[in-house]
Amino acid sequence: MKGYVFHGPGQASWQDVPDPAIKEPTDVIVRVGAVTICGTDLHILKGDVSEVRPGTVLGHEAVGEVVETGSDVNTVRPGDRVLISCVTSCGRCRFCRDGSYGQCRGGGGWILGHLIDGTQAEYVRVPHADLSVHPLPGAVRSEDAVLLADIFPTSYEVGVLNGRVRPGDTVVVVGAGPIGLATITTARLFSPERIIAVDLAPARLDAARRFGADAVADAREAPRQLVDDLTDGLGADVAVEAVGVPESFELCTRVVRPGGHVANVGVHGRPATLHLEDLWIRNVTITTGLVDTRSTPTLLRMAAAGRLPTGGLVTHTFPLQQMEEAYDIFSRAAETGALKVVLGGEQHAELAVPAA
């Protein structure tokens, strides 16, 4: 089969790789039908995630069809259409029993495309399948469902829930890429008074307005002043960092009000300065986190009922074989206008047919 293989910082290729096989009785093999590229994959290619070894197939978000199951798998069977979660859960360790699947100590957590071969391939092995793949309702298209593998649960759990967004809040989202836009969408479920999006790219600020931001600000043009003007100098109740660079994190700590929450979602490859000389007296809560995906079943039900708008996030689609072109388009988002790119899906359904 083919897969997109990481060879070291700045180096990856779509190439022949061994077919996956069942290793544990809790595994499943999934034929990939739709897959997407995450900003975290770009961080890996930059060398920001040192745990990823050369030779690893990248990717942690996909929809596909189960083709083989281990003897201990009980929730899915061959032929089922499933969503592959970006986080794998053993279901037995201390963290999994608490619902903190991202911190799994039983061979799970974020392992796909990180510690083991991932989803950017024609087939993928998924460990601990009973808690790590989700049967898909027929009403949810693959192009929409694949967004629930990572960006929507991440934005909802690590941004909105960790940030404790409440009705009437002012929410500032720094970064209007896919994670930021999904944060805007899911924050609106809690009826904040206003959402302010901050970014450098005019196209992404336009997208933020389409997804429900009430105001937008260029990060280079005094966004703190805009927040102060809209809140009578109080500041934001919640500031969500959705980029992963020091400047965006530090901006969040400047725009948040005393007693407010800073929810860091971005993947950071460089240190950020924590100005405790200013923050210690302001009762600010700062949270970090890797998504647990415990909200995925709820988000899937909402999507099936038409209560979770995902349309518009996918700006580019490709056949699976055009992985390298898709990475190029996604990595130059400021030029190409790319938000999420999807490979495969209903528009390229022939990719789900096994070779003769």
User: Regions with pLDDT < 50 over 5+ consecutive residues?
Assistant: 349-356
What structural class do the secondary elements suggest? alpha/beta
Question: How many E-type strands?
Answer: 16
Oligomer: single chain
- Counted by DSSP, the helix tally is 13
What's the Cα radius of gyration?
20 Å
Helix proportion: 25-40%
Euclidean distance between termini CA atoms: 13 Å
% residues in beta strands? 15-25%
Describe the 3D structure.
By secondary structure, this protein is α/β, with parallel strands linked by helices. 26% of the residues lie in helices and 24% in strands. Strands 3, 5, 6, 7, 8, 15 and 16 form a 7-stranded mixed beta sheet that branches. Helix 6 links the parallel strand 9 and strand 10. The two termini are 13 Å apart.
Question: What's the structural blueprint in terms of helices and strands?
Answer:
Elements: E1 2-8, E2 11-16, E3 28-36, H1 39-46, E4 56-57, E5 62-69, E6 81-84, H2 94-97, E7 123-126, H3 129-132, E8 133-135, H4 142-145, H5 151-161, E9 170-174, H6 178-187, E10 194-199, H7 202-210, E11 215-218, H8 223-230, E12 236-241, H9 246-255, E13 256-264, H10 276-279, E14 285-287, H11 296-304, E15 314-318, H12 323-331, H13 333-336, E16 340-344
Parallel strand pairs: 9-10, 9-12, 10-11, 12-13, 13-14, 15-16
Antiparallel strand pairs: 1-2, 1-4, 3-5, 3-7, 3-16, 5-6, 6-8
Helix pairs in contact: 5-6
